[in-house]
Amino acid sequence: MKHSLRFFSSLRKKKHTDSNDPKRRLMIFRITIFVCGAFLILRLFDLQVISSADYRAAADGEHKFFQRLIPTRGEIFLHDRKSDDAVADALGRAQGDERLFPALTNREYATVYAIPKTIKEPEKVAEQIAPLLGVEKDEILPRLMKQGDPYEVLKKKISDETVEAIKALGIQGIGFTSSPYRYFPEKGLGGHIFGYVGYHGDKERGLYGLEGYFDDILKGKEGSLRLETDAHGALIPIGERRVVDAVHGSSLVLTVDRTIQLVTCDRLNAWVGKHGADGGTVIIMDPHTGAILSMCSVPDYNPQEYAKSSLDRFDIPAIFTAYEPGSIFKPITMSIGLDLGLVDTSTTYVDKGKLIINGFTIQNSDRKVHGRQTMMEVLNESLNTGAIFVAKKIGIERFRSYVKAFGFGSLTGIELDTESAGNINALNESREIYLATSSFGQGITVTPLQMVTAFGALANGGTLMQPYIVDEIIRPDGSRKKTQPKVVRKVIKERSATLLGGMLVNVVRKGHGKHAGVGGYFVAGKTGTAQVPKKDGRGYDPHITIGSFAGFAPVDDPRFVMLVKIDRPRDVQWAESSAAPLFGELAQFLVQYLEIPPDEKIEDK
Question: Worst-scoring range by mean pLDDT, 14-23, 57-66, 454-463, 496-505?
Fold first, then answer.
């Protein structure tokens, strides 16, 4: 025990002696200086090298002003060929001898905002301006009471009258700013083909229609402005100044004619309402070029108020909604038979009213037995058994090849968002029933645009043209890019198309297409009353139909090809009473508007 005490006592003495050692104290001082110096060096390295960009940005934020320069979105014009000078001066824009109408442009709208920290009586202010904004007091009061918020939007896109009414109140802390929004100068042009400008995530962009398809060129490119300021935020005249100019968006000139579009949409709306139909579509095209003169569908929506419409309204029915076309497909089947030399206008067969194929019974729509019939009469009377007769001669392989050549089952390539390809997969099946039903337009689906484009090939001597809706792109610098018509392919021989055109004229003059005729003109066309599949996919609902009429005029030199489609009319069953009469009304208008001379050789009875 004594030895242990002596040992610890000696350690305490040694430690005390070391702490008073001058050499040891000097060493500790040197180490301290070294560590502090190393820390300073590392800190300077971090400031000057590793984190220099962050600190430089922070300094710039204190002494530099930055602003995004927003480009002006391009406009969309329609051809305005027939407007008088007064209308053209007020609404159109002269381009040489051509007038253009701004169907979709930009307009400044005001936004009212609040600066809550400067508003002394939020409740009173809310009571004053809520009625002017058309909102409830409780909707804006919480925003007015956010004392820590320097800027609170109360409502966007308010009218000039509302701005003046609020200004007259003289409320401190209420201000206004303006922003450009898309504006439609004229109602009645339809909204589907245009689409709208909305938000995809947190970014504003064009959606659907032309706005969606051409968003990249319509929106242009943002620019920026960067200026150097002093410590008080004032601009330094000789300081740094960097400007990247915004590139404004390009504008589009459509092939659509303003007057034809207005009349088409107006008549279609009236006709759908008259028949209590679910909706309808009309497409009018130049068969020689593929240029769309009009494209309208109902029900429609207002792109300026797109938020009020349901999502299913935005897709374009003319290019998106595929349906079983029914008997307007029979001319396609007949044209194939003519082109292969398997039938001609006088070829006959015996109609027994129905056929049993693969255990399925197929009847004519009128449930009648017609006996011996020519191919001309097959189209006149719209006989299902006659279409099957021709299809059997063609065979499934050749039939499928021609149907694809007409453009069915693939996209047309029109410059619009949300196009669909339809479905002709039934023609990949080997069972005879699929060939039979496809021959008269059931069991396969097509879009209205595909159908009118195929009829355009019949009107254009058998040559299929690619449909297009943009005539020109006008770039910000004023230069123009003109769309050139594009031949897709030769589908049938010119002689075949000519023979079929004569057969379709006979359908209008003597068959089910009488209501589509125009006095003094040879109009070619065909009705189609398509059955609609049941919701469970088993068979067709006998009480629901889609009526279509497709045709062109004048037959010798067609100036237009048109498809009319009426969805589920309530008061009539057959297309000759729904779609055909609307076709006739629009065709009558077109021959007058386009100043098409009547056929001298026609004899109206």
Answer: 57-66
Rounded Cα distance, 446 and 324, in Å: 6
How many whole angstroms separate alpha carbon 16 and alpha carbon 130?
A: 84
**Radius of gyration of the chain from Cα atoms?**
37
DSSP state letters, 71-132: PPPPPEEEE-TT--HHHHHHH-EEETTEEEEEEEEEEEEEEEEE-GGG-S-HHHHHHHHHHH
Reported as type and span, the H/E element at residue 506 is: helix 494-510
Q: 552 and 287 in contact (C-beta within 8 Å)?
A: yes
pTM: 0.81
Element (H, E) at 254: strand 251-257
Q: Is 250 annotated in the active site?
A: no
Q: For 359-379, how does the pLDDT look when each residue is reduced to its tens digit (9 = 90+)?
A: 999 999 889 999 999 999 999
Active-site residue identified among 327, 335, 439, 577 = 327
**Distance between start and end Cα atoms, the chain:** 144
Does the pLDDT of residue 597 top 50, yes or no? yes
Separation CA 523–CA 588 (nearest Å) = 10
SS3 434: helix
Half-sphere exposure of 187 (CA within 13 A, CB side): 5
β-pair partners for 361: 356
**Residue 57: both structure tokens together:** 């940005």
Report long-range pairs for 575-578 (Cβ below 8 Å, ≥24 apart).
Answer: 575/326, 575/327, 575/512, 575/527, 575/528, 575/529, 575/545, 575/547, 575/548, 575/549, 576/512, 576/513, 576/514, 576/515, 576/527, 577/515, 577/547, 578/271, 578/275, 578/277, 578/547
Q: How many CA atoms lie within 13 A of 162 on its CB side?
A: 20
Model pLDDT for residues 41-92, shown as the tens digit of each residue: 776 666 565 655 554 544 444 445 445 667 889 999 999 976 544 334 433 4
**Each residue's pLDDT tens digit, 93-144:** 443 445 899 999 998 888 888 888 888 888 888 888 888 888 888 888 888 8
DSSP string of 265-301, one letter each residue: HHHHHHHHHHTT-SEEEEEEE-TTT-BEEEEEEES--
CB count in 10 Å sphere of residue 602: 13
